[in-house]
Structure formats: structure tokens, C-alpha cells
Amino acid sequence: MKITRMKTNHIENPIGFYLGKPKVSFVVTDTNAIKQEAAQIKVALDENFNEMVFDSGKCENIDSLGYELNFELKPRTRYFWKVKVWADNGETAENTAFFETAKLKEAWLAKWITADLDNKINPILIKDFSVKKKVISARAYVCGLGLYELSINGEKANDEYLTPNYNAYNKWLQYQTYDITHLIRLGDNRIETILGDGWYKGRFGFEGGKSEIYGDKLSLIAEIVVQYEDGTSDTIISDESFKAKKSKIVFSSIYDGEIYDETLEDEKYYKVKEINLGLERLKERLSLPVVIKEEIKPIEIIKTPKGETVLDMGQNMVGFIRFKVNVKSGEKVKLQFGEILQEGNFYRDNLREARAEHIYISNGEEKVIRPHFTFYGFRYVKLSGFGEEINLEDFTGCVLYSDMEVTGHIETSNALVNKLFLNAMWGQKGNFVDTPTDCPQRDERMGWTGDAQVFSGTALFNMDSYAFFNKYSYDLLREQEDRNGMVPMVVPAVGMEGGGSSAWADAATIIPWNVYLYYGDKAILEQQFPSMKAWVDYIKREDEASGSKRLWTTGFHFGDWLALDGEDPSMPTGGTEESFIASAYYCYSSSIVSKAARVIGKEELAKEYETLSNEIREAIVDEYFSKNGRLALKNQTAYIVALFMDLVPENHRKRVAKDLNDRISQDKGYLKTGFVGSPYICRVLSENGYNEMAYKLLLNKKYPSWLYPVTMGATTIWERWDSVLPDGKISGTGMNSLNHYAYGSIAEWMYRNMCGINPTVKKPGFKNIKLAPMPDYRFKYAKASFNSPSGLYKSSWEIKEDGSLEFKFVIPFNCEAELILPDADLDKVYVNGKLLKETKINIQKLVSGTYEVKYMPIKSYIRYYNINMNLKELCVNQEVRRIISEEVKMPISEDMVNNLGDKAMPELAHLPFFNVTEEEMNRVDKRISNIKIDIEQ
């Protein structure tokens, strides 16, 4: 029995983070025990727990998902905490972790300083100091604007990049805390902080961006506290005793990259001056560190038809290239970054005005180089100035993203689906660089709320994302303060006015609720409830001001963004009525606010917003549904939203689900959905009796589909269904990112429906799950693993050669699952080798353990061809096609298959020009009914 994943506020051993009332959590592994009987948590100032500050005592009600430590924190203090767990089989285990506070309410002694230099120069701010006694501890408390890197005695003080991160700088400024004990030496020491423009001062924002959105000076505030063995300490503060010099960074920009000139030899020191930026905005960090999470090597050097030298990294990634360079003094090497080749040549027009390059001017010495204050989204790197002899080993792709543990994985028998899942994962890696961005490469890279909202469920399965979304949600809350509850389109808002679009702004309610559902920690609801309520109140005021009586019919909305069913091709808002989508989200968010209020003990508000939600639902039904349940709107997304957001009267759900299925069939079995409909379409189908259609949509390989980009060689998710055309040409440059994760939200369906792992409101945080895998005959197997906040879940299924189903499940310690087996006769189900009815196992309440379930399903999961399949599906199999040509007098041409292939032969028989008799169809059906459908086809 072991205790693992010990975290404080969902961060492992945090140093200098905002803690509020800290909550500690843990996971128990490696045990055959089923339940936690009791636990005890102790907190002390020392690793030996001699200086105790808190002891819960042995308690039965300590929740591993989060236990609040009820004592007053002191500034700049490391606390060690220990948990001991008693299990129901007599086993015990204990383990220790720590957290460390920052300055808390302690007054700043340091001053904001800036170099007395031209604002365009990237300075280094320097302080020399001497240490004459043995050091036991040293900490740096630092914020540098725009971006900074701190070094002590020539060594980088941490493994982070892009500090102090990307947030609403006009509202709050994060300072970081670093343990620099190992870098301080006896004698002379030097602190150096290099500054660059970043998000704060550099070019950023819409339409190519603008400079100095938040400020016009590169500045620093820093306190270095050195504690000695004799109990004394020194504090080095930023003030006018610092000095400055020019760095060799000639230029740096988030969008444009970096120019670094090693030949610059200006060793002159310049003065610094204090500036008044105020201290009230400084706050302990919320952002997770942005670090190099992976390193990948290029797979090939390409010589293009134009004679360019291009590295192929084999993967669309985000970060930078670290490279070795050895050229003559004064010679320049250049790296330019792009996502795709066009006609075999380097291409980056879809990056718009982002230059995305790294220029290095050598001083003649061999060096290993990387940029400082930028990042790139790329697969291909055009090299200039490196000479003819280029060694792949000299180049390394450094993958940057926020320091989150990967927690989920999906694998199936279909290689393309596996690649789709990985593409969604890589999309998350590339766009979770401190803030959930829409794209990581062009002149945008902003925290679009709609993208983050629709992908949040997938993100929370894929990675341990609580702290990440907590920071983003806090930024959203702060941005609402001056907007009367309205939520901007992007967070941080980077100086933008406006916002308030449905689905996008509903990130205010949906993201915190999803985080609570996945983690079972109501702290995020307590933090965000004012924001959640303010957003719904904003819509309510808009609704009432327009006299629309609980329908939201005013303002700008993105609609079903980039859907394919709009009447006007120039308008990307799709064909689903925007007021319907807006009203649906109005209802959905009101319901979430009601549920959140109930969780945090605000019962009166819970009732108020529950009533509001019901009123909106009734208004939607009156406006858009007939008495017989017919939805007035006929778009895929309209049906999806109505079903997913529980707008359909219960007695009409079956009809609306059937209408959705029929609508998709009318659309030849292909997606027409955009950012609103796509995340939920397969979930709605699977959960309303049309699982086969969900799999059909998943497995389509032609545009528009999830697998079309995979067949085109995509290694991330595209912004558009057809970002690249079948001939390999990019479909446009104005708005065409090849790393845009929103459509990767299909992975949530893979976890929840394909493999069946579902959180429940009854016991959030995966203490209790609904385990409802839904196999399909077109796969041999599928399996998911999810290292949830409560422990590791595994769920897999396999269709055996004899048609039987085999499931394997792992339920973690102290958790339960309600198992729903598809097409099962429970009297004939075997669990761990025994008939279920002969065991004491309750599948409605599976406890911790490993289970192997086998049975012959009532419905066959091995399929044979039949004439009720559509013509295109039949003609995929050459033997079936031969039989049709032998039995049917009318020739079945390729044009017929392409144009009418979505219809079955009995449907085609009603057409005047399709001369196929019933006798012919019966003969075909008899012969093909013995041919097993090849799932690979």
C-alpha cells in the first residue's frame, strides 16, 4: 500500500503559489484493500515533525480529494505535511510532501526599477553582493515585465520559460518564488535579470496586434532573502543600487521571434531608476511553470524544389529549436518556422503577419543556442546560413507547455483513430502554454473562451488541469470586473472591448463546473461563483431589456462557428439560428449556476437560478418545438444542442434523437457541425440510442470528418475541416491554423462513451463513476486509462472471434462504479471466471478491484453484409461488388456509387431510373449475408 500524488491545491510541492486556505490531496495505490477506514494529516515546520503546527487526528471523514488545513500560514515558510491512511483490510501507509508560502501580506521592501536606456533595448539588470557565512536557505521573489529570465552567478535560476506568464496584467501581476540555495556561494555573487517585451509590452493582439498594451517599460521587482546557519539573514532588494547593461538580444517578440547578436561587446554599465508601478497588483503566482516537457529530434533534412534546406520535426509542435552553431564571426544563421510544405517548398503564409523566426549572429565560437522570450508553432524549420554540412543531431525540438501530468490515454484497433487521439493530445500540449490559446503559431495565440470551453472536458481527461484552468478562470473573473458581468471573447482581454457571445462567454460557468465535476473540489466554485452568477445576470439583463421573455435574441454571437451548413459561405457562423444557440446556453448556464450554488451552500440562489433555467427552457420549447416534439430548426447542431442541454421535453427525446439521426443520414452521414455542435454530436448519438451513427461519423475518412486530416498527414487538430485540400494545398491563409484543438473534443466521447468512463455529480472527482462502455463492430478493441484525482481507472473491451465480448476494468482504491453492460443477459455474464449470479458482485456498485467480464451479447457484434446497408458501404468490398454485378442486370457505375451511395438498395429501388427488382435484391442479400464485414475496410 502506497500514498502517491500528494498535492497542495492540486500542485505537487508548490513553492510560492497562492494558497488561500490550502487543501491537500492524495491517492492510495498498490493495495488489495477496498475502502479507506480513516486518515490523519499532520503539518510541521520540519521534516521530522518535531515542530507541529496542525494535527487532524485520526478521522473517518478525511477526503483524499481535498482536505482543508485550518491554521494561519506564515510568510516565506516551508510546511511539511504527512498523511497516514488506514484501510479496511488492516493495511496502513504514510508519506510526506511539502508546500512553501511566498510573501503573503508581508510588505515589499524592493522597488520597481527599469534601465535608464531606450525602451527598445532588452536590458540586463544586475546586482553584485557578497556572502561571508554559511547559507542554509536562499529564495528569490521576482516579477519582471514584460518577460524575464533570472540568473545567479551565470546559471539560470530555474527551469521555467516565459515568466511571469500571460495574465491580465492590468488587474494583477504574478510574482514567482525560486529556491536558489544551490546557486549561492561563499564570496562574491551576481544576480542578473534579462528582460524582454513579451505579452506585456510587445506586439500582441488582434489584426496583427499592437505594442505596449499593458505598459511601455521593461521593469523588475525582486527580493532575494539569504538565510545563514547562525540564524541571521540578508535581503537584497531591487532599487537604484542595481546597474544595467545592454543584452545581446537585439529584438524579441512573441509573434516575430528573436534576433541575438553575439558580436555585441558593449560592457558599459548604465544606471537604473525607480518607477511607480505600485505594489497592490502583485500576487503570488497561480500559473503553473511553463517548462520543456519533451524533446524531439528532427526526422529528416529536406532539400526543397526551390533549393531551401528544411528540417522536418515529424510533429507539429510548440516551443523552440535548441541548436549547435559553429560559423565565422559576424555570420548570421536564421531559422524560420512553418506548419506545412506547399509543392514541397517551405511555407508560412498562414501565420499571417507573424514572422516566427530566430536569427543568431555568431562571434565565431561554437555554441548551443536557444531563444529567450518567444515560442513557435511548427513542424518545419527553414535553415539559412548553416552551410552545406548540416547534422540532424545538432538540432533538438524543445516542447514547451504548462507543467501538467498526462493522465489519460486511448488505444483502439484502428490506427487512424489512435492518431486522431494523439493529434488531440498534441493540440492540447501546443495550446496549453500558460493560457488555453486558440492557436500557437500565427499573429493571434490568444485565450479564446469558446475553444477553451468546448475542449475543457477532453483536457481534464488528458492532463491534470485543475491548476491550469483555475488560473485561467481567475483571469476571466478579473476581466469581468469592469464589464458588468460580460465576458470578453478572449481571456486575458489584451485591451479588447466587447464580448459576450454565447458559447464563448459561457466558459465562465462551464469550465469551473467541469473542473469541479472532475476533481470534486468545490474551491474553484467558491472562487468563481461571483463570475458565474455575474455572467448569467448579464444575459438576464439583456433578455429583459429586449422584452424577449427568457429568450436571448440580442447582441453578436459566433453561432456554430465554422459549421458547414450556413447559407452564406462568407459567414462562418453556420446555419443554426444564433438566437436558439444563445437561448440554449442561457438555459444551460443558469442551470449550472443553480447547481454550483447548491454545492457551496447557497440554497436560496440555487432555487432562484433553477427557476430561471426552467423558465428559459419553457420559453425555448414554446418558441421552437411543436406540440408533437418537432424541432423547428433542422440543422444537426440544433438537434444536438437541444438534446445535450436537456431542452427537449422528456416524452419527445426519442423523436428528436431520431430526427438528428435522420438529419445526418440526409447529410450523407457526414458532419455539418462547427465549434458548438461538434464536441457533443457523438455523445448525444451514443447516449440516445444511435451509437452506430456516432461510430460512423468517427470513422468517416473523407471531408468533412475527424479522420480526413489524419489521412492527409495531420499531426495536430486543424482549425477547419478542410484546412488542407485533397491535393495538399492549404485552403486559405486568412484564418487557417493547423494546430487548433477545438475539434479534438471528440476525445471526450472516446473516454466517456467508447470506453465508458464517466464522472458523476453524486460523487464528483471520480469517487463514483458510471462505467458504460459502448463497443462497435467496426473495432476489434478499445481501451482507456485515466489517472483520475481518485486513482487509476482502466476500461477496455474486445470483440472476440466467436462474437463474445470481453471487458477488463480496474477500479481504484476507495472508489465505486455503476457498471452498465451493453446487450447483456446478466444470467449469462461471467465475472472473473464465474457466473455473475453465482458471485456476490453487485455490478451496480463495483468496488475497488480488477474485473474481467465475458459474455455472448444479445445483439451480434460481428456484422455481415446485407442490402439494407448503403450502396457505398457495400461497394467497398470487392467480393460484394462482384456479386451485385452478377445478380443485378442494371450496371452499378462509379458515378452512381458516388452520387447515390448514401442510400440502401431498397431505397434506390423506388427511384424511377434504378431498375433493380425485388427478386434481384433478395438474391444479392442471400449471397452477401455470409460475408463478414471487414472492419479494416
Notes on the structure:
By secondary structure, the chain is of the alpha+beta class. Among the domains are: about 1-100, Sandwich (Immunoglobulin-like); about 115-285, Jelly Rolls (Sandwich); about 755-855, Maltose phosphorylase, domain 3; about 870-930, no CATH class. Helix content is about 25%, strand content about 30%. The protein contains 19 helices and 42 strands. Strands 8, 9, 10, 11, 12, 13, 14, 15, 16, 17, 20 and 21 form a twelve-stranded mixed beta sheet that branches. Strands 18, 19, 22, 23, 24, 25, 28, 29, 30 and 31 form a ten-stranded mixed beta sheet that branches. A hairpin with a 2-residue loop joins strand 37 (about 780-790) and strand 38. Helix 3 (about 450-460) runs parallel beside helix 14 and helix 9 packs antiparallel against helix 10. The chain is globular.
Short description:
With 937 residues, the protein is of the alpha+beta class.
Question: Which features does this protein show?
Answer:
single chain; 937 residues; alpha+beta; Immunoglobulin-like; Jelly Rolls; Maltose phosphorylase, domain 3; twelve-stranded mixed sheet; ten-stranded mixed sheet; 19 helices; 42 strands; 24% helix; 28% strand
